[in-house]
Every structure is written in structure tokens, then in C-alpha cells.
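Complex record, three chains
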Amino acid sequence: MKIFFPLVIVMILVLLVFAGIKANLYFLFGVVIPYAALAVFVLGFIYRVLKWASSPVPFHIPTTCGQEKTLPWIKQNKIENPSSALGVIIRMALEVFAFRSLFRNLKTELRDGKIVYGSEKWLWAAGLAFHWSFLIILVRHLRFFMENVPVVLKTIEGLDSFLQIGVPLFYMTDAVILAAVTYLFLRRLYLPQIKYISLAADYFPLFLIFGIVLSGVLMRYFFKVHIVGVKILAMGLVGFNPDPKILSEIGAIFYVHLFLLSILFAYFPFSKLMHLGGVFLSPTRNLSNNSREVRHINPWNYPVHVHTYEEYENDFRDKMKKAGIPVEKE
Amino acid sequence: MYNAGKIIFGLLIFLALVTFPFYNNIGKVSAKPEPKIDTPEIQKLPENERKCVEPKDFMRGEHMQMLNDWRDSVVREDNGIYMSSQGKQFNMSLQNTCMKCHSNKKEFCDKCHNYMAVAPYCWTCHIQPKENKS
Amino acid sequence: MAKLPKPEELSKIDLKPPKTDWMDTPVEFKEDMYCWGAKGKNLKVVEFPNARDWSPKEEDWKLPENWKEIVMEAFGDRLSKYRSFKLFMDICVRCGACADKCHFFIGGGDPKNMPVLRAELMRSVYRKHFTTGGKIFGKTAGARELTLNVLKEWWYYYYQCTECRRCSVFCPYGIDTAEITMMGREFLNLLGLNIDWIAGPVANCYMKGNHLGLEPHTIKNSIEFFLDDIENITGIKIEPTFNRKGAEILFVTPSGDLFADPGTYTAMGYLMLFHELGLDYTWSTYASEGGNFGFFTSNEMGKRLNSKIYAEAKRLGVKWILGGECGHMWRVLHQYMDTWNGPADFLEVPKSPITGTVFENAKATKMVHIAEFTADLIKHGKLKLDPRRNDHLKVTFHDSCNTSRGMGILEEPRYIIKNVCKNFYEMPENTIREYTFCCGSGTGLNASENMALRMRGGLPRANAVKYVHDNHGVNMLANICAIDRATLKSAMEYWVPDVQVCGIHELVANALVMKGEKERTLDLRLEPLPGKAEKEGNE
């Protein structure tokens, strides 16, 4: 059910596109839905982040992963246990760009009654490959949204296709992302523990992204669409002046691509995909470990009922006096 | 501890990134590429014979693949004749067949290629046609 | 309590999850895996709600009629108070990196002890009540209603987490199960559902100043008992002070060290070290607890107990505070105390009167860790040490969860150990420093009725100790945590019987050559020092 349900949903979404095309709903699929999806994405993303931001960080709780700053002759681990803003920035950058924590991953196994820990980098490698490919692919797509494509983009594209296989040139990221998504799916399917913890919400984005990549790959290499038409539409969209005439000339598979992407964007703010924004707000990573040096303020800190020394002495005064322990009131 | 400043700063970066395609195009007029097929060679042909080796829609999507196949066929298989879907034979040659009619690279090929920011590597081997700068 | 199975039995672990989905697998209260429910009288002392005697074994937990309302209201309230909680409810992608990092999962194989599932127990309820998707799609979206069974599941599993934060080291978003367990326990405590092993110490600490409920004269008696032993060993008579106004330093350490060995030897170590330094310090009977079982109860209770330390420092007019060896105590002192009960502007920035070192890193809280203090002494050559007295020991060091992952005090204890004994061996690198394993009994789970849980949780640590025991002949497991000293002792007896447990200041005091001491023949455990036994035997 957890796998089947999201798979069926994605398949229905694909069928919806074909039905829509049949019914001549080009404007809906080519203009209305993409706009709506982007609006939901941007506003939803901001809303979610602000919602997190509306709760304070009451305590200073970095997870420290190295020696703290103490005595001057003890070498501090300034990145894994930062005490300065720069240290935190480097720690966060490593986390965001290199998945530092995931790189630590170990595999715990029981062998003849002994527990052994093996290095386990596959998740890290696949995760990193997936996210970086996704980013490069997104950036590459900017060529559809710019009249004069800057050299940087052309360079990225050139690097991505430098193997010069086939025509149009084959992008390495297309293969990498397909392989990575497949791996991420298969590990949910075959690793018993991971399968056990997986929810429909874990499979859905995988299927969706797989669909987006697959439709993209198919239209680039196999079922060609009117690519100039795609750019005319894209330029029209970003100029808030889409050309309705071009819509019907592009080709159905493009609309599959665009619609699944729109669904992904619209789904994003309501899902675990918000880890994109959340990772920056994680208080176990984005705080410096200086809570003994600088007082952290909790905005809702409130006075509590305590058992005062006076009450304590009242309870034990005689015993204290007998034991020769000084008291306030004789 | 809300870190409101840092979060708002982060959100502004997010906004700047996702809306980039929009504000980047403000004030820019986007012209659709219109490749010209009015070369003298084409003009010379009678109206009903002004046809490419394959239908226009096919050529638009597949010309790169066709040229690639032609090259392989000529260079590696020593076969220089293309049989079109209409049953006509063509000499597999970019310069002698394609460019014979489409002698206006700048007004034809480059129009879409530049628009789409693709850089075909035809001209790393072939000599670019010398066109009158117009 | 059933008889604990033999180690060979207990270490047969199947890490494969069951066939039924976790939401369809009702919680099963397994023998020896949970603690007794909090007694009404202990909850009453701290004015906690629903104070009554109850038993987790019984069907009826004697909950207030509106228990669900109470929990859901608190849930919403904590979401608005803790960004960590809200964020950690939302952003988990269930990548599973944390799954096999929990000592309870490794040693037990119960899938709900995978940190991700432990959190999902709460996330599922969060989705049902606080997200649109959860409300609409229900179980498909991983959402479920908070039912009595779910509440019991929470109780069972949030008292099977020691808030050790090992999972948070591996999480790509830093999701910290400790934060979720803390919330779980907050909610449970609103219904009077603490465990008695926490509620008892909390009540004690609130009224008497320490978890063990030692009254002022008893504290003094216990310490005097140590002083006799010290005199026996060194010939030196030490006279510490209690509740003395005007002392330079207030010393606070977990009360566990005053009560049972091997913690008591660590306490003797402090006494000997401070005497040798001629330190102007005092013990307090009011703030006689460094640890904080309130922290394992609720945020508010943690603050209530912690308040005594600054209050007492202020009353006595000391300049700064020195803290003994303890794990969660230092998590609290390092990350919570100043926020809760600060600012400590009535104190001065700590400065070692012996070396003149100013502890800039503690300039706000004004509280220094004794490992920092002692390492500084050794570095400045202020201590005369004879490490040969520890020659009979082959030592390894267990990093405590809280001091390594909630503070980062890793090098000081190692520096001290290397200076006071010659045989030091590290455990495998995946089990020390930030990767260290919990003793298996932290956060107030060091009771006796849950011994199977404790031994299972202690297995990964014990397994690593066994490795250095087998390969290097290690026979002493040093640490800087009172709970470790109490609990690793049982874990070692069970899993690696030839290894003993000690605090590092026991090792320091053994090696410490004191002015005017007689020739020592005994260590702090009143066992013959290396080489001395034969001599005596020959005479």
C-alpha cells in the first residue's frame, strides 16, 4: 500500500496529462498549473519557514562532534565543534554542500555475538549524487528562461555533456540522477529496516522525480518535442505574456514533464522535501558551542516554584547544627 | 532566540533565486526565432518543389540525429545515398545537400541554435559558408 | 522481576523488523524492559498533576478523563515554544542513517528503538492533529490518532531512550531524538506518568538537595567516612568545609559519588586533590546535587532543581563554581543553566587560584569542569604525580554521551589519564568521542527492575570494552560520569566481568604524591598498590 498508492497516484497524474491534451486543455497544463504550482511553492515555502521561525530556539543545543574550545593548549575542532560564527558557517556549508553528517554513516552488524561497524558510504554517495545532479539539471534548464544564455551556464552544460555521446549530446547528470533515484528507491524496497520505516510520503517524491527525469530524458533523446516552442512558452511564462498559439505545437510528453514538475513544486512545501529549508534552521547544527561563554536567552523563560534555602534550613536546622554545619538562623 | 534577521535574509536569498528567471527578463523583449528559408537557391525552385529531404516537423526535431547518421554512414560505411521517406534519393552531404538550399547559416541554422544556446559541432570539421554580411 | 537471561542468551539479537507494519504492531511490555510507575507521594512533593500510585502492568493507568486534551494542548504549546521540536516533526526524510546507531536498537533489535521510529511514534500523532495532509489522508500519510495504546507506546519507548544524541551525530539534518524524548516525557508527566526511578530522586533533590535524599548531616558523615579511609591510605587528615560562606569556590558534584563505589573513590579523589592544592572551597548540602533528574522529567522540573546551584553560590558569596565528573549534569550546566537561572553576574570569571589560568570559555556561566581544572594543573606542573601507582591498571576511557555530544570535553580527560597512568588504550574509533555509546542506563533508567533493558542498552559499549580487554588486557574503564560509574559497573559485571569502573579523579588521587604523606601501600580501594603486596608478604 505504501508503495502502490503513490505509484498509482503518479500514474494517474500522467494519464491526466494525456486526457488534458486530448481535451485541448493546453492553457491549463501549459500556463495555469505551472503558475499556480510556482506560487504555491514560493508562498508555501516561505510560510513554512516563517512558521518554524515563529517558534524560538529556547536552548543552546548544538550537537558537538569534536573537542570544544577550552584551554589554549588543547586543540579545538573549530568546525565540528565551532565556537565562532565562521566555524558555524563552515560546519553548515559542509552539511549542506557535502552532507557531512551522512558521510559519517556506519553499518552496524552482529557477527558471532560481536558488534562490528563497517563504513557505509552508499547512502551518502547516492544522496549527494542525486542532489547535485538535481541542482545541475535545474541550473541547466535556465537556458530556457534567458534570452542570452551566460557563459557560466554554457560551461556547466558543456561539462555535463563533455563525453560527447550521441546527438543531442548526452548529459551525465541525466544518467546519474536516474541511477541515484533508482538506488534510493531500491534501498527502501530491499533493506528491511529502511522498508519498515518508509511511508507513502517517502515513495511519492521518488516516483514523481523519476517520472520527471524519465519524461525529460525521453523527450530529449527519443521522442523529440518542438524544443524552440518550449523556450517560446518558457520565455512567455517568465515575461507574464505566454503565447497561447505555441502551446499545441509542443508535444504531449513535454506536458507530462511540466505537469509532474508542477506537482512536485506544489507538493514541496507540504512534505518532507522541506528539509531543503529546514536544514538551515536545525539548532543542533547552526549554533556555536559557546553557551558557557555567552548567555543564551530563552524568550519564554518564566519563574518557577523552587525550594529555597530558607525552607531547606527550616527543615534541617537542628540536624545541621548538631553536625556542625553553619546555618543562617540560630 | 528567534534569529529573525538571519531567517529573513535567507528567505530573501531563496526568493531571489527562485524568481530569478522572472526579474532577469524584465524589460527584455523576447523575439521568437524565425529561420529564413528565402535563399536564392530556394527561390529558384518552383513553389511545389520547395521541400526539404523530409517533412518540416520531422526535420525540426530530428535534423541533428539525421546529420549524425549521415556522417556515420558516409565516413564509416562508405554509403553516401539517403533514401527519404518520400522515396527520393539525396546525396548525404551537409555542405552539398543541406547548405545548397540553406546557404544562409546565420539566418537559418544560427537562429534557433543561438536562441536555444546549443552549439553544434558541425563546424569544427566543416568549413563555415562565407555569407554576405547583411 | 524475572531472572536476567545469561549474556549468551541476551546477545542473540535479530535486527530484522517484524512482518506487521509498525503502526499495526501494538506495544508489548516486555519483562525487565521498563521501570515502575511513579509513586503518588513523589509526584506530590513537586506538585505534579495526577499524583497517585499506579502500575504500567495494569490495564488501568488511572488517567484523568481529559488526558487526551491535556496532551494535545501541551503538544501545541511545545510546538510554539521549541523550534527544534517543530522542525524535527517536519523535516525527517526517513533516510534511515540513524536506524542502527541507537544502543537500544543494536542491543535489542526492537524496531521502535530505531531513532527514526521512536520519533515517528510522535510524528504520526503530530500529522493527525497538526497537518492538513495527515487529517485528510490519515494512515496513508503516516498519521494516527492519539489513543490509549499510543500513549502507552510513548511511555514504553520514551523511557527506552537515554537522550544520548548519538543518532543526531549521523542525521543529515541534525534531528536530535533527545529533543523528541524530552517532549514525550513532558507530555507523559502532565498525566502523572513518570517512572519512579526518576520521580523519587526528583522529589529527594527538591526537598533535600540531592537525588539520594541525603540529609545535611548524612552528607557530612559520608564524607567523613571517606576522610578516614584517606587518612588510612596517606596518613593525612583532611578537613573539608560545608556551606561555608566566603569560600572562593563552590564545589558541586553528583550525589551518587557520595553513596556507592566506585563513585565514592572519585569523591575521595576530589577531597585529596583539593586538600593538596590548599583550595579555598566548600561543599554545599543544599546544592548537593550536580546531576539533574528533573531534566529527565520536564523542562520546568529541570530548572527548578538546577536553580539551587546559583542560589547557593550567591548565598555563600563564592567567586565561581567548580563541577565534578558527571555527564548529563554537564549537559545541563553547559547548555541550560545560564539560560534557565542566569545571568550569574554575582560571580566572577573563573580563575584557577593555583595556575592563574582564566577560564574564558566559562565566563558567562562561571562554572568550570573539573577535568579542565585538573588538566590545567597538570599542564602547569602543579601536581606531583607518580603514575607507577596505577601500573596494575590497563585503562580505557569511556566518553560520556553528554560531555562528548553536548559539550565536547574529549581531550582533557585523556590528557589527565595519560599523565596519571602509563597503560592507556583507546576503544575502537567508532565507539568513542562523538561516536561514543551510552552506558545503556542514562536519563534515569538506571533502576533494577529494567535490568534486561539496561544490559541490552549497555551491550554496544561493553562490546567495545571487551575488544580492548581481549586485545590489550584492559581492566579498568575510566569515565567522567556518575551514572556511568553506577551503571557500567553492572554492565561490566554482566558482559565483561574482569573490567572495573572508575572516575578519572580516582586515578589522579592514586598517582598524586601529597605533601607529608606516608609511604602508600594501598590504593583508594584499599587494595595493595603494585609491588607493595609482595613486600608486605615478605616481611
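Note: Chain A touches chain B through 46 residues (CB under 8 Å).
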